[in-house]
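>> received
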Amino acid sequence: MRTSIGMLAATAAIMAFAATTALAHHGWTWAEEEQSELTGIVRTVTIAPPHPSLQVETASDGLWKIELGNPRQTQRAGFVEGSAKPGDEVVILGNRSLDQSEKRMKAVRITVNGKVFDIYPERIRTN
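>> returned
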């Protein structure tokens, strides 16, 4: 009996740690509260977990990493393999990294060649 209680406690502790780690990774604390827009050309597209992402090159600011939602959420938004490819023009609405030296943004909306994908519709703020 004692062994199973000890195993349950250990399992619970591991699950709590994993949940905390996942929350820290998937949170928005690293990003500015204010949203901004970024326009550029897609250089690479990655649909793989943990977060699909794009490398986008801007005319004035170089290469940016654009993070989308988790794969399932990104797919629900309609953004799937082939939705964007290198050379496509893209407009990103999102939250930039708090670290101004880091060219990284979490996208809430992405527009590729005029087609709109709302990755986080509940977070979109428009003026």
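>> The first helix runs from residue 2 to 26.
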